[in-house]
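So, could you explain the following?
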Amino acid sequence: MKFKIFKQSLRKNLILGCAFICLLFNPKSNIAQTQDSSRTTLLSEIKNIKKSNNFDSKDTLYINNLLYLADQYRFHNLDSLMILSQESLELSKKASFINGEIDSYHALAGYYSDKGMIDLAITNYTKAYKLADKHEKPFLKAKSLSDLAKEYGYKGEYSKALKWYLATIEIAEKHDYKNIISIVNDNIAHLYLEQKDYEQAMVFLQRSKNIHEEIGNPIFLAETLSNIASTYADMNKLDYAMYNVNISIATFEKEKILEWLAYCYEIKGKIYLKKNKNNWALYWYKQSELLHQEIEDDRGKIDLLNGMTEAYLNIEKDSLAEIYAFEAFNLSKKIGLRFGIKNSAHNLSKIFKNKNDFEKSLWYHEIYQTTYESLSAISNEKALNMLKTRVAYDQQKQKLIIENEKALAQQKIYIYVFVILLLIFIIITFIVYRNEQEQKKLNLELRSKKTALEEKQAYLNELNQTKNKLFSIIGHDLRGPIGAFQGLLKLFKEGEMTQDEFLNFVPKLKVDIDTISFTLNNLLSWGQTQLNGSITKHAVTNLDCIVEENIALLSEIAESKSISLINRIEPNCQIWSDPNQIDIIIRNLLSNALKFTPNNGTIIIGAIQKIKTCEVYVKDNGMGMSEDIIGKLFEKDSNHTTYGTNNEKGTGLGLSLCKEMVEKNNGKIWVHSAIGKGSSFYFTIPRIQKRYKESA
């Protein structure tokens, strides 16, 4: 049976690859290429992040990608797992990224566990647990305890393993972590299987299966079903075993999970071996062996090697059986797996007996016998320790429950006394201060009505001022150009002006009409903001397009004064704003710059893209402004108007309108200027930023 472990959840868009075509004939090429694709995608994303201008090695997205990649190398390249885990741990500590630090300790522990260095794995899982406990992260705390228990299971200290598993279940049940509960049930079943207690193991496996069927996690369900299949095979219920393992294989082939697929192929080989169908057993063992060439899972490989040894012995190919038996024996010694040593030594004893090499046969039989007796003695002790641990844990839990109930009962008495005293105090307070409260209530109502009247009066005064200002501007700034236009039309209509003379005034008329149109647009926009009728609708806005449209619109005015309009905004510079309001802001700033820039001048518009904002600027080399004028530019009630270099006239509303619209788009506006040195207007607007998701 295979222990279940927690793995990082990779994003769905990284699970790439083609369907399994002819998988049974060539699993290695299809599955391995798919997992290589996932790792290649992650490596590419990490490189792109490092190449970005604002790259910071302390960025949690970068650290998480390192951990995702490290997880991909588990069972595939342990050296890469080690390097990436150490790097993510160092960066997480520098960035004070607690989740990253905990996951890094988990990755390091996984490396040491797969290398057979159980004590170092326990050390790192313990560090992860203490860090999660200190920072109150219950999910990571439960995850650390479960993995810690698993390592004690590998080490053979089942009482400690069960103790931590039970503590994990308590945390998981409190926070409803169903996946954790199911994984722990699988792993507790493993402890009972080591003692050949198949019935008790099946109880825990069935609990795990029920949880996965409830929450609908197909991968975790397939892992549990594969363990159920292995248990049925050990119980010689081979039809049940075959049914469950086939379901698991279908899931792991679809999801391209090599280490579990190799395990399922090994189970299928074991089933055929027990049916005495040795050729079919070898077929599935070899499928598993092919996958083991792509993964590093020594524990899983030992059962495979011993199974192949038995199959070759059954078909009397002792030379091949000897090769696999020696590989299993040496690998078991390397990682200290005593069950592997026992089984491989037993097989080697048979092989050398068949070869009439009785000395070696006896030597390996003694190793088998010594290991078997050691395991049997330890197994009995483990059974007692597990029972004692469970009873002690239940007793301690029951004792805590009783103590908590007593404490709660005592607290209830204190609460009742406090509530009675509080009620008496409230009644006395109500009686004593009732008249005073009534008086305060009346005073409050009077103040409230007075405040409401003052607010309404202020609002009406503001509306009246807005109305007066609108009529003043219309009468002062629109009546003149419209009157001039009417006078020309009247002269032309009455024959006092020839057609050629009228046509000479057309350019002047166009400028006047454009001025009237621009002024009306500003008046309408300003009037809406003052009368609370303007609604800001944010959307993704391409700043460069808006600037180009306004440059084209104002190009004729620029050409008339021989002014160069230079656009330095990068293409596809996207901001989060109301495009109509940004259009008004840009047009007013460019129009002002044209108005106050002399002939043959230069106007530059550009943008500086920062992390969260885009800083837009409009610079000219025109007349400039004094400090007094700058101080009045953005005042709400100011309608300060200055004539341009060619006596252009405006409403005085433009900059006030710009300020209101910039602020509605969550930005700021300011100006730098000096007499004779030109003016530079700046405003900020939020940028569109890339967002990344992380699954747990």
In short: Residues 358-493 form the longest helix (136 residues).
